[in-house]
C-alpha cells in the first residue's frame, strides 16, 4: 500500500509559522505630557527699581530778588562798580565781616550734600563768610550773601540744611567768630562779570568774586 503524504498549501505553512515564531507586539509607552508654557510665571518687571527723582531733576532757576541797575565801572569803594577785594575786613558798627574769594564751581559740594544740580544756564557758586559782632541778641541770620549780575539783578543765597557748612541760622555770642558757607545760583553766561554782596543787619557792601 502506498503511503500518502499530507501536503499543506504553502500559504498555510507561512501563516502557521508566523503564529508560532512571531515576537509579541511591543506596546508604545504612554507619551509624556509636554510642558504647559502658559503656566510658567512671567518676570515681574514692576519690581525693577526706577530712577530716583533727584537723579532726573535740577534745582529751580531763581527769580531775581531785586535789581540795582546795571553795573558800571568806578564809584565809591565797596560799590558794585568798585567792589572790595575778597578777604577785606568789612568792619562797621557792631559787625566785622570777611568774605573769601568765591568758588565758581561748587556743584560737586552741593550734590554731595544732597542738593540738586544747577539748571541749564546756571552755576552753583559759594563763598565762606566769617563774622563776629559785639551786639547782643544777634544771629547768623542777620548776615547773608547775594550775587549781583551785570544787569543789576540780585540773587540771594540759598540756605539748604542738606549742604555741609551752609549758613544755619543760630544765635551769636558777642565777640565770638562764626564761619559758614553761602551757596548761590548765578547766571552762567555772565558769571564772572558780576559781584558778590554781603548784607549785615541791613548794611550792604560789594566784593569782587576773586
Describe this structure in words.
A hairpin with a 2-residue loop joins strand 10 (195-200) and strand 11. With 210 residues, this protein is mainly β. The strands form three sheets. Strands 1-7-6-10-11 form a five-stranded antiparallel beta sheet, with no helix packed on it. Strands 2-3-4-9 form a four-stranded antiparallel beta sheet, with no helix packed on it. It is built from three helices and eleven strands; from the N terminus they run H-H-E-E-E-H-E-E-E-E-E-E-E-E. The protein has a domain at 63-207: Sandwich (Immunoglobulin-like).
CATH architecture of the domain at 63-207: Sandwich
CATH-derived topology of the domain at 63-207: Immunoglobulin-like
Mean pLDDT rating = 79
What's the assembly state of these chains?
single chain
How much helical structure, as a percent, in the residues?
10-25%
Physical arrangement of strands within the biggest beta sheet: 1-7-6-10-11
Give the biggest beta sheet. Answer: 5 strands, antiparallel
- Tell me the overall shape: globular
Total DSSP E strands:
11
Structural class: mainly beta
Q: What is the rounded distance between the termini? A: 148 Å
A few lines on this structure:
With 210 residues, the chain is mostly beta strands.
Features of the shown structure:
globular, Immunoglobulin-like, 10% helix, 5-stranded antiparallel β-sheet, 210 residues, mainly beta, 28% strand
Q: Topology of this protein?
A:
Blueprint lengths: L9 H12 L31 H4 L9 E2 L21 E4 L2 E5 L7 H6 L9 E12 L4 E2 L3 E6 L4 E4 L14 E2 L5 E10 L7 E6 L2 E5 L3
Antiparallel strand pairs: 1-7, 2-3, 3-4, 4-9, 5-8, 6-7, 6-10, 10-11
